[in-house]
Amino acid sequence: MTKSALPDDTVTDMPVKDALALPQSLLVLGGTSEIGLATARRLIARGARTVWLAGRPSPALEQAAESLRTLGADTRTVDFDALDPASHETALGKVFAEDAVDLVLLAFGVLGDQAHDERAPLRAVHVAQTNYTGAVSAGLVAASALQAQGHGALVVLSATAAERARRVDFIYGSSKAGLDTFAQGLGDALYGTGVRVMVVRPGFVRTKATADRPREPFATTPAAVATAIELGLRRGAETVWVPGVLRLVTAALRHAPRALFRRLPF
After folding, report:
1. Which of 80, 96, 172, 241 is catalytic?
2. Residue from 179, 232, 229 nearest 19 by CA
3. Quick check: is 172 catalytic?
4. How far, in Å, CA of 201 to CA of 213, rounded?
5. Considering the entire predicted model, what is its pTM?
6. Are strands 11-13 and 239-242 parallel, antiparallel or unpaired?
7. Nearest by Cα to 239 from 13, 5, 9
8. Where do the H-state alpha helices sit in the chain?
9. Which of 27, 121, 212, 230 has the fewest CB atoms in 10 Å of its CB?
10. Has UniProt tagged this entry with the keyword Secreted (predicted)?
């Protein structure tokens, strides 16, 4: 298969013949997510006209919506709480009742604080419930709605931290590992239905949430992740790494002997 050239910071597994059209409408679960908003801006520039931002009501959510309206998109907000799975069907149902949604971007999540969370189990549970339990609920509800309308894509923001537990962030990494496995399985379950699932695995992303953390190798930006998402959608990819070199790095680390892995400086 001949593959089109990709930017150096992006690697996708991409069946080109199954490429998807870019969405005209999208729902961002995690409406204040910097990656989610960067993706929305990029897709608006490519022709998206309707954007739903789902999140807990706040001035930040309203400001995010207004910033997209200035770009020409019909942008609306919907109340959504990742930690309240019982409300997910109602919240997302309001969106799909309005019109078809071409793309659902599952972009919410929390990093937690490993050093503190290890000593405070309830804080660790908060990370797990947000990143995994809430995402499983929202992902299944979104997938069901997309399947009912007969088309669409679900893009799930995982992380390279999901590939193997590290001492510095194994609570966060384990929650993303669960999400990653879930998303892969969901993609297989939806194969042939007209609904696609794309898993995105960024490395360390420079955002406000990570501003006070030491910068890691192969760091990336929300804009770079948004670019990778667009390219992945164009090519019908199932998995995207950002930057692309992390596909090789994580493959090597996944098979490193545990005694060696423990001595690595991270």
Report:
1. 172
2. 232
3. yes
4. 19
5. 0.88
6. antiparallel
7. 13
8. 34-45, 59-69, 88-98, 114-117, 121-128, 134-149, 170-190, 222-235, 246-254, 258-262
9. 212
10. no
Virtual torsion, Cα 253, 257, 263, 266, nearest 10 deg: 20
Residue type, 64: A
Cα 188 off chain centre by: 18
Would you call the peptide bond into 243 cis, given omega within 30 degrees of 0 as the criterion? yes
Question: Amino acid identity, residue 66?
Answer: E
Q: Could you report the per-residue pLDDT of 72-107, keeping only the tens digit for each?
A: 999 999 999 999 999 999 999 999 999 999 999 999
b (16+ CB within 10 A) / e for 200-214? bbbbbbbbeeeeeee
CA proximity to 135, closest of 160, 99, 110, 113: 110
- The three-point CA angle 101-102-107 to 5° equals 85
